[in-house]
Write a structure and sequence with these properties.
4 helices, 22% strand, five-stranded antiparallel beta sheet, mainly beta, 18 strands
Length: 349
């Protein structure tokens, strides 16, 4: 298993332009911000909380794994690589004002040692191999985190965390490797934070049989150790090593720095479940074309660049930013809202 020192060294080398560990790292713009969740609440409009979704534009309410072919049915993707028609989604962060109204926190692309990524909202995706890995199969899906959890002690801080980003420039890297140092499970509640970086790291071990499970978790497991190290060794119950998927989100909180706007009690920043960091979660549905992801892992494709040996082609930001769909549960999600979008359709403040 790689140590944090090894990962830190890899990050440092990447910052200096040397490739120490090949991994895919690429931007995904927002496909849509919508109250649907085909993994946990298939077929339901106005699900319990709001999500921001990225990836292939065949995303829909049901995403029936027996019939929905993401790679075949999508005509564009909001992610950098044209071959990646997968869907990725997370909860949305809101600012709660003193008067009780809510405002969705905007997102920006992430900078860091590997270079700036450009996206319109959305998030950054990593696929980190550790030795020989087996790519996901069509129909594979999984969930990281628990949308109902309120106890930070029930969350591995090495897999789900938040960082107070004290620079107004997302490209001015703050801190070390993800989910280390002063990173917390809870969302930072401090006006000194100009950005809040959220990290969600998925399990890397698979039972080798089931593409999903009733809780969307039991068919996968975390390997030895934690953090962005490729996943570590796998248990005998889940012996197949997968690429490590990591979501990285930059929530831009600079517009909410005036403390007089903050509520007199309780948190100012919450997720769309009206809960804090322990409820952070991410959903994943695999949709890469053919064996392109397996080849990308085998051939050592790196960052967000063309990789001819695996057939990967990187789109321009203008191309992937243009891939969007309409809300399937129509309601306002931007500007000041009277209440969190939960239950009935949201209305403007």
């Amino acid at each position: 298993m790689q140590s944090w020192a090894t990962i830190a060294a890899a990050v440092a080398l990447l910052a200096n332009g040397a490739v120490a560990q090949n991994m895919l790292r690429f931007a995904c713009s927002q496909l849509v911000v919508d109250r649907v969740d085909p993994l946990v609440n298939p077929g339901v409009r106005y699900t319990p909380h709001l999500h921001q979704i990225v990836g292939g534009n065949s995303f829909n309410l049901t995403m029936d794994p027996d019939s929905h072919d993401l790679a075949g049915q999508s005509t564009c993707t909001s992610c950098s690589f044209a071959q990646d028609l997968s869907n990725y989604w997370t909860a949305v962060m809101f600012f709660k004002a003193k008067n009780g109204s809510y405002h969705r926190v905007p997102q920006v692309g992430n900078g860091g040692p590997q270079g700036k990524l450009v996206n319109n909202g959305g998030l950054d995706i990593y696929y980190i191999p550790s030795g020989k890995v087996t790519a996901f199969r069509p129909g594979f899906r999984m969930l990281a985190g628990n949308a109902a959890n309120t106890d930070p002690k029930k969350v591995s801080s090495g897999n789900i965390c938040h960082r107070c980003w004290t620079s107004t420039n997302e490209g001015n890297f703050v801190g070390g490797a993800p989910c280390t140092g002063s990173d917390t499970v809870d969302i930072p509640q401090d006006t000194k934070c100009k950005m809040i970086r959220q990290t969600i790291i998925f399990p890397t071990c698979w039972d080798g049989k089931n593409l999903d499970s009733p809780d969307h978790k039991s068919h996968v497991a975390y390997g030895g150790g934690s953090g962005a190290n490729g996943g570590g060794s796998c248990p005998s119950t889940h012996p197949v090593k997968l690429p490590q998927i990591m979501y990285e989100l930059m929530w831009n909180v600079t517009s909410f720095a005036d403390k007089s706007m903050w509520p007199e009690s309780g948190p100012a920043f919450v997720y769309s479940m009206n809960l804090g960091g322990p409820a952070a979660h991410g959903d994943y549905v695999f949709g890469w074309k053919g064996d392109s992801l397996q080849k990308a892992m085998d051939k050592g494709c790196n960052l967000n660049k063309d990789c001819p040996s695996a057939g990967l082609t990187a789109q321009t930001p203008a191309q992937y930013n243009a891939c969007t769909i309409k809300q399937q549960a129509p309601e306002p999600v931007d500007g000041w809202l009277k209440a969190m979008p939960m239950g009935e359709m949201a209305i403007k403040a």
